[in-house]
Specification:
The structure is a single chain. This protein has helices at 2-30, 45-54, 62-69, 75-84, 97-105, 108-135, 167-178, 182-190, 195-199, 212-229, and strands spanning 33-39, 58-61, 140-144, 159-164, 204-207. The longest helix is centred in the first third of the chain and has 29 residues, at 2-30. The two termini are 45 Å apart. Helix content is 60%, strand content 11%. The relative contact order is 0.18. It contains ten helices and five strands. By secondary structure, it is α/β, with parallel strands linked by helices.
Length: 231
């Protein structure tokens, strides 16, 4: 009888343990998995995002979220105007990013004023979007944010991917894309984390010096490894 009782006890413990492990496995399988994609200004993050979207990954553009964060009527709008003055408000009544940019890109203190307002709001919006899409069945996400590491968001994602190009390439692209002078472009580059600093946080580094096709191929290969790892 004692032997039978022990066998039953061992069997019960094994069954309970198995159920707990299976429950944890199901939780893991259902958990959203997130790539944090970052890189300097004009590094080519959009090329990687386009590739990931084509592979079924849901991409969240934090820059786009940021545009709406301080739209007129939002709490951050009033905070930005209080911090930087009515001069940053355009004729349409919205925040004029072209008026705001020279103020914040030339001063770390002014930039901190802006990021203290916008970063928490952007992160909250991104998390809400992930939660909503995960409930609809989406599993894999990419959060694109140039300031991912500066904001400390690398702790909220499963892998950090860094897209990089030399500063000279970034400067040239920025001058052409945004119609900036060399000095203005360099100010924007200087306001961000360096390539060397970003590398310390990277799980994956994507070199975007070559063709767009080469970058897309690299991103595809890394994403397939990523989804297989978290399958």
């Amino acid at each position: 009888k004692m032997a039978t009782h022990r066998i039953l006890m061992v069997g019960s413990v094994a069954l309970v343990t198995g159920c707990l492990l299976y429950h944890r496995y199901r939780q893991y399988r259902n958990k959203p998995v997130v790539i944090g994609l970052t890189g300097g200004v004009a590094a080519g993050k959009s090329t990687v995002c386009k590739t990931l979207e084509g592979l079924g990954c849901y991409v969240i553009d934090c820059d786009k979220i940021g545009h709406g964060i301080y739209a007129k009527g939002k709490p951050a709008f009033d905070e930005v105007v209080r911090a930087f003055g009515a001069g940053v408000v355009g004729e349409d009544g919205e925040i004029n990013r072209r008026a705001l940019a020279p103020i914040v890109f030339g001063s770390k203190d002014e930039m901190k004023k802006l990021t203290d307002i916008t970063w928490p709001a952007i992160l909250a919006a991104a998390k809400a979007e992930i939660k909503q899409k995960a409930q609809e069945g989406q599993r894999f996400f990419c959060v694109e944010a140039a300031i991912l590491i500066e904001a400390g968001w690398e702790k909220t994602v499963d892998q950090v991917w860094v897209v990089e190009v030399p500063a000279s390439v970034s400067r040239e692209r920025l001058m052409q894309r945004n119609k900036l002078s060399e000095e203005e472009a360099q100010k924007r580059i200087n306001s961000q984390m360096t390539v060397e600093e970003r590398r310390k946080y990277a799980h994956i580094i994507i070199d975007n010096q070559r063709s767009e096709a080469h970058t897309a191929t690299t991103a595809t290969q890394e994403y397939l490894k990523f989804t297989e790892h978290y399958a």
